[in-house]
């Protein structure tokens, strides 16, 4: 159960693995420059990120060694553990940047919402697999929404709007592949978007209350006109303005590592986490940014191929859940840096600094490799 049969190793998609290594390499390469103005030691965050990658690799190998179908026995326990974990962070968590999303463990800080994404993917895959062909009517969707309701509510209480949106993206992506009525699902997504826009309009027009703080509401709409909310040049649109300046000044080939004025002079906020793509755009230029996006595109393509060749629907849904998460992270993160998406605090997978996110992503990789290796029966 906990040992990888060497005959399974020949089934590994090495193109997928190489893609991950290449993306990790880009992150490690850009991180010293991205964090240079944050700490006097440019290797401080690099060392911590390498430790997170190393621990993540150990977890990935362990996750890949367990037959993924065996995990189904524990989905109820995992779901309950997930709820308890999210409640714990609300009770004893540490508030950082206005969100109570972290649990301090001595010198370490754990963000449970990142691990929660992986747990929900596994649990929801089991949930949908048992309901194949039963997502044709609106009332069939209700159990799926209720399945996510409690974890999503706990995430929003932190409040962590970015992770909440990722939960929704994972749920919709997995429901689509799980056999949900496409027209009905599209109508719900479109209706939800219209309702969200209408609610924000009604908030400013008539004072309708929203379950969001003022700065969160402003960040949702600031990308439309980042110069509208001035506040002495430091309003909700400040992040977007500085990010667009950074990416635009990079040109085709970039200014070179440690030569980006926006990041080195600390004009660009959160440049080693949420806005690290802006650093890539300024210092590596359009070519560097485009190559990174091509690596992500190739990664998603290979993940979809793994899903198509999976042995069962449970495996398919796990891979699609991970793919939905990565696609949403990349689209929103890159979109917010170029002013096409709201600033919601979503990191760039495998590139942005963050131990919890790295650990969660490496765990997901272990599951995908697990499914990939077991796509065929072992010949005897």
Q: What does this protein look like?
A:
- The chain has about 375 residues and is mainly α.
- It has one domain (about 5-375).
- It is built from 14 helices and 3 strands.
- The protein has a 3-stranded antiparallel beta sheet with strand order 1-2-3, covered by helices on one side.
- A hairpin with a 2-residue loop joins strand 1 and strand 2 (about 100-105).
- The longest helix is centred in the middle third of the chain and has 25 residues, at about 180-205.
- It starts with 13 loop residues before the first helix and ends in a 7-residue tail after the last helix.
- The mean pLDDT is about 85.
How do the strands and helices of this protein lay out in sequence?
Blueprint: H1 14-34, H2 44-65, H3 75-92, E1 94-96, E2 99-105, E3 108-110, H4 112-129, H5 138-157, H6 161-177, H7 182-206, H8 214-222, H9 238-250, H10 261-264, H11 276-283, H12 285-308, H13 313-337, H14 355-373
Antiparallel strand pairs: 1-2, 2-3
